[in-house]
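Q: Sequence in, structure out?
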Amino acid sequence: MSSLLLIILSYFYGSLPFGVFIGKKLKGIDIREFGSGNIGAANAFRTLGPAGGIAVLLCDMSKGILPVLLARFFAASDALVPLLQVIAGVTAILGHNYSIFLKFKGGKGIATSFGVIIALNWWIALMCFSVWGLMVLLTRYSSVGSLSGSLALPAFMVIFKQPVPFIAFGIISCAFAFYAHRGNIKKLLKGTELKITEKAGKEDAPREESDARAS
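A: Exactly. Output:
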């Protein structure tokens, strides 16, 4: 019963649209109407500036960190801790991507997934972050960095012999990332993807993609 409670709490906490809250608090705007239309850190940096972007990033990361850390207190036994950590983490990502507060729309779950990875294994998280940073530095596309880091995650989990639930999380997280970024992949192929350094404008916000308000 306690495990079910954690799963429910993980979903609701993951559903909190911090990007929308912070955008309205700092600048009185809905960041879904600007730039890429995303509610996450990359679009928050473009739309709200460094302070807003960092605030959104940390809040979205906390969605993944807290449920995984709390799993140790909710698991029925020590042997079940890794499995419950992964279930809670995945549920938090689903909450972020399909928020009950945004009519089951939401983000792409990259920052939330990164929070989960930090709580599962911080040094693998650091390696994935390094992959992300390198690819963003080379391409100036946040989406390329996110997809590259997502691809690296299951490989790192296998190479460093992590528990089976952690490896499963790597595969699931990677699949989530590519599905959520399908619109970005199309834009990359067309050459219309926004670079992380481009300033946001209301006219840039996507209006056709069903995941336009994603992050």
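The chain has a mean pLDDT of 90.
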